[in-house]
Amino acid sequence: MRQKRQKRNLKPRFAVLGEGITEQWYLQHLKGFKRYVYKISPSLFADVGIEKAEGYIDRLLNEGYDQVTFLTDYDTIVSQGKQEVFDRFVGKYAAVEEVLICDSMPAIELWFLLHFVYTAREFPDCAQLVGQLRQYLPGYEKRKSYLGKAQWFAEMIKGEPEAVERAERLLNQLAEGNVGVHFPYSKMPQALREFDRQKDKQN
């Protein structure tokens, strides 16, 4: 009689996918600071569009990852006229519990700004948003030479509790409707809750 093979007790695996180097450097600093357990993908800090993201997510799921989180900027989607592509992308994973898509409008820098101040100002593009952010992070640049340093993150992370509260406030306004086409929002609080859940599950 053949013995029944025992199932190996494997630790769950989690991945987070950042659209560009800004998200990826933020995720790296965040992981070290809060001891999160996710793997950052792609590991070489390559730019990831919607089309590439779908391939990455499917591959990670096929490799057995228990959860994949994707961070993206919505202004890029709008400027490239890819709203329908993004809607199909979101729809594909809407019923997939293992995938969480967190977009920010216009960009993740809105999430950064909320660490310092609440604003519902509409920013037609990321350049205007970055100009506002530099009032609190002088010299901020979407470059490795800036993002790779820990100082900006260390200054910003002090305001994370307030950022979560402010982002939730914006999301509530968005859900109520009657907002402009460039109304700012960030779904990063959902990502943070997921990262905390993953950390608790590993412990």
Overview of this structure, please?
With 203 residues, this protein is of the alpha/beta class. It has one domain (14-202). The chain contains 10 helices and 5 strands. The chain has helices spanning 21-34, 50-62, 74-79, 83-93, 108-113, 126-133, 144-147, 151-156, 160-176, 188-202, and strands at 14-18, 39-41, 67-73, 99-105, 185-186. Strands 2-1-3-4-5 form a 5-stranded mixed sheet, sandwiched between helices. It is globular. It starts with 13 loop residues before the first strand and ends with a helix.
Task: List the topology elements.
Elements: E1 14-18, H1 21-34, E2 39-41, H2 50-62, E3 67-73, H3 74-79, H4 83-93, E4 99-105, H5 108-113, H6 126-133, H7 144-147, H8 151-156, H9 160-176, E5 185-186, H10 188-202
* Overall number of domains: 1
Mean pLDDT: 90
Spans where pLDDT lies below 50 across 5 or more residues = 1-9
Order of strands in the sheet with the most strands? 2-1-3-4-5
User: How large is the share of residues in beta strands?
Assistant: 5-15%
Q: Shape, please?
A: globular
* DSSP, total strands: 5
The secondary structure category is alpha/beta
- One letter per element, helices H and strands E, the order comes to EHEHEHHEHHHHHEH
Taking Cα atoms only, what radius of gyration do you get, to the nearest Å?
Answer: 18 Å
Distance between the termini: 38 Å
